[in-house]
Design a protein that fits this description.
It is a single chain. By secondary structure, the chain is an alpha/beta fold. It has a domain of about 200 residues: NAD(P)-binding Rossmann-like Domain (Rossmann fold, 3-Layer(aba) Sandwich). The protein is built from 12 helices and 12 strands. Strands 3-2-1-4-5-6-10 form a 7-stranded parallel beta sheet, with helices on both faces. It has a 3-stranded mixed beta sheet with strand order 7-9-11. The longest helix is centred in the N-terminal third of the chain and has 18 residues. It is globular, with a radius of gyration of 19 Å.
């Protein structure tokens, strides 16, 4: 039995889709935890066991992890959490107890790059995510944390600005190169780990994408793929904070995001060398052609 959390989220839904697509060959039963089962497509509901509720709740995870061999653990963002500790370790605490109670053997988590760097203890959301990893690891389960950089898919939040104004924003310097990864590659890595459980102990699995790119590099590729000029505009950290608060985020989340972006500017994501094992396959150009361009141009595509 494999349990999937956030099955309607970006990464969780893609992991679930990959496991369902391969169901005839792997023969694993699938169970999902979801707040609103109606958000699951009908064909999906017919193929999985559904536990309704939040995976923060002790009763929910106690029910969901009974008989489970492996769990995909993803903490959803909580912009209004009173603290980052509550948003990550607090959210995970009941699940950590349930892993032990029910003898769950393997857990795969979605986390971040930065462990072992000098910036890891002052990187806001990343620091909180790494502390969550430590909590899961302390239970004695075999644990793999997918160590991710920023997502290519984050640009989808700026589709209106790209389409209408030819602009996207971020807070890092225009020429700072860094890794980026497609969420579909992160999901593929997670699905592989959930199915092939020959691994033991605790470790991380970096998902770095095939190359480091700067915001100016991203703008050039987006412009070429869309066939229209798109430029990068740097946003200050103060403006980022104000934007988040304006959208209703609490102080803890806003400051956590600012601290994370400050750490990324200082090189948080540069601590892992790209190798054949850590370089995920989807290039930014390919992602733009297959995901961003249809979103900007109003076309549909299979993902």
């Amino acid at each position: 039995m494999i349990v999937i959390t956030t099955p309607t989220g970006d990464i969780g839904s893609q992991v679930l889709g990959a496991l369902l697509d391969g169901a005839p060959s792997h023969g694993q039963k699938l169970r999902v935890i979801v707040r609103d089962p109606d958000r699951l497509p009908g064909p999906v509901r017919e193929q999985v066991e559904v536990v309704a509720g939040s995976h923060r709740d002790a009763d929910v995870v106690d029910q969901a992890f009974a008989g489970a061999n492996a769990v995909l653990w993803i903490v959803p963002p909580d912009p209004r959490a009173p603290s980052l500790e509550s948003a990550y370790r607090g959210f995970t605490r009941a699940a950590a107890r349930a892993f032990t109670t029910h003898g769950v053997g393997h857990v795969v988590g979605v986390s971040a790059l930065g462990r072992g760097t000098a910036l890891a203890d002052r990187a806001g959301l990343v620091t909180a995510s790494l502390a969550m990893d430590d909590l899961v690891a302390s239970t004695g389960v075999a644990y793999r944390a997918l160590a991710n950089p920023s997502f290519m898919d984050n640009l989808l939040r700026q589709v209106p600005s790209i389409r209408d104004a030819g602009v996207f924003t971020d807070t890092v310097a225009a020429d700072r190169k860094a890794p980026t990864a497609a969420t579909r590659d992160i999901a593929a890595a997670a699905a592989g780990l959930l199915l092939d459980r020959s691994w033991t102990g605790v470790g991380s699995v970096p998902v770095l994408g095939p190359e480091d790119l700067s915001p100016d590099d991203l703008a050039r590729v987006v412009s070429e793929v869309l066939g229209t000029p798109v430029r990068y505009q740097r946003q200050s950290l103060d403006d980022l904070r104000a934007t988040l608060v304006g959208y209703g985020s609490g102080d803890a989340f806003a400051e956590g995001m600012v601290d994370m972006m400050r750490a990324k500017e200082a090189g948080l994501d540069e601590g892992v060398r790209r190798t054949r094992e850590t370089a995920s396959p989807t290039s930014f150009r390919q992602w733009c052609e297959e995901v961003l361009a249809p979103a900007v141009l109003g076309r549909t595509t299979e993902r």
